[in-house]
Amino acid sequence: MNSSLTKNILFDSFSGNTTSMQDTLIEKWLEDPANQELYFQYLDEWESLHPQIITNPQNAFEKINKTIEANKPEKQKPIITFQPKISLKKLGWFAAASLFIASVILLYSLPSGQNEISYNHLVQATKDKTGEMYEKTNLSGKPLLVTLPDESTIMLEPNSKISYSPKSYNSKRREVILSGEAFFEVKKNKEHPFYVFADELITKVLGTSFTIKSGANGEKSEVIVKTGRVEVFSQSDERILRKMEVNELEGLVLEPNQHLSFEKKENSFSAPKMVMPEKLHMPIQTMSFDFVDTPAIEVLEALKKAYNVEINYSRKDLAGCHLTARLSDEPLFEKLDLITFALQASYTKEEDSITITAKGCLNK
Description:
By secondary structure, the chain is an alpha+beta fold. Helices cover 34% and strands 26% of the residues.
């Protein structure tokens, strides 16, 4: 573990400037008793740099304990236990500086033998930290288009769901939580890496297109890359705090047209392999968006098929329009920006449809 990096993250935590996912990762890091000792060393240092008034550390700590006891399910086994040699003063500072960590202890106090991280635990931890969550579930029989606040797009498969916090999304990083299967087209932004949390699996990108299938009931999880590069690692990775902090991709990185699987029980990844055709069952995974002097109507129909979204337009106004364009892993609305710019047209977004307004073309 990179101690200087850990120190920076912990200082952010003491100041209340970490995201919910960072808090969750810190809590996992604290499972190691050696890290608990280091934690309090950093806390002492932070206290000296940020003097505060704690009216009654004993009451603060007792209040947290009462909350934990009141919410405990029967036969639970806490993941994290603190050593008796830690002083009450330090525990008081711990309670005042990082109340959220106590709530994560609650969340991860699972029934005996169930220490894995699930979709529901990640959603609840984020909600406790930010106060709100947005969740979208696909109850239909077809892929569902979901647009994120930065206009990255997701094709959410049936019986799958995605969650994120509108309040924290894109503040330092872009974080979403997935249950099921989805295809992502992530808007490029190197300053705000994009993370997908699918139970134990974490996928990190800067801007690309890829598919994630989270394994339910102990099944394998999969990552399939269409374009760009994708980093994958697990919640138990010993370098997880560094990987969450830096804005570069490192470690196990997948290249275009590669895929791998993750075994939750074994906590292991398969070797990256080239994608086989049978792995690609969504139209958007297999379609090419290279157009050479192609009628605009055909281009829009291709988008309708790929994104399973209604696109309204006047065939009369677009009858003589042709496009030459090479579109890649841009989210849908970036593609539409490029297309409408070339056509000198515009578009509007409704709840479940898109309307193109064009004035016709000169090349009739």
